[in-house]
């Protein structure tokens, strides 16, 4: 008896419930997922990435680099080098030369010559002074002055300027530009795009599809359970 009832009722109930639910799930859920989620991902996320990230990188980072770094280098480094180095050279070297050498020569040598030489060997020293000392002092001092002016000025102007203009400018232009253009662009294009394409697509395709299949399985189970309970 039980079997005959089940056989007579089942064909009339199952075809009416099962296709309806099945159609509803496939139509509504799939339409919702494909329309809303895909539209959301492709419209919002892609628009967001292209608009915000690209605008941010191009506007902020480029503006920052060009404005701040270039202004900083040109203002600070040039001002510092030209002001500090030149001030140092002119103040320290000139003060040192004029104060120490002149004081030393005028005070010590003159005192030594006038006191010791004139007193001790007036005749010999006069001959010695006029011959050797004057020649030596004039040659040595002039050579020293020439050496100082040549060496210091050549060294400062050649080395410092060459170093500053070559190293600093090369370093700034090479490192900053290379770093910004290589690292930032690589980071943006690699990380953001990889993240979006990998994570979002993986998440959507895995999670949503899993959800749909789970939900459909659940609905199938519910339908069959309901039918079985009803048949009992």
From TrEMBL:
Name of the protein this chain belongs to: Uncharacterized protein
């Amino acid at each position: 008896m039980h079997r005959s009832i089940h056989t007579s009722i089942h064909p009339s109930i199952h075809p009416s419930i099962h296709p309806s639910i099945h159609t509803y799930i496939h139509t509504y859920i799939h339409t919702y997922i494909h329309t809303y989620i895909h539209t959301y991902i492709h419209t919002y996320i892609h628009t967001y990435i292209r608009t915000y990230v690209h605008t941010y990188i191009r506007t902020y980072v480029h503006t920052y680099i060009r404005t701040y770094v270039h202004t900083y280098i040109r203002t600070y480094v040039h001002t510092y080098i030209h002001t500090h180095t030149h001030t140092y050279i002119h103040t320290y070297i000139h003060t040192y030369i004029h104060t120490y050498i002149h004081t030393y020569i005028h005070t010590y040598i003159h005192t030594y010559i006038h006191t010791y030489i004139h007193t001790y060997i007036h005749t010999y020293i006069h001959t010695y002074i006029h011959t050797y000392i004057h020649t030596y002092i004039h040659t040595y001092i002039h050579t020293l002055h020439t050496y100082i002016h040549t060496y210091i000025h050549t060294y400062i102007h050649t080395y410092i300027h060459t170093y500053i203009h070559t190293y600093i400018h090369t370093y700034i232009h090479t490192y900053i530009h290379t770093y910004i253009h290589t690292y930032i662009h690589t980071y943006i294009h690699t990380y953001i795009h990889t993240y979006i394409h990998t994570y979002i697509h993986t998440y959507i395709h895995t999670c949503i599809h899993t959800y749909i299949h789970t939900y459909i399985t659940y609905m199938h189970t519910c339908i069959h359970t309901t039918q079985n309970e009803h048949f009992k």
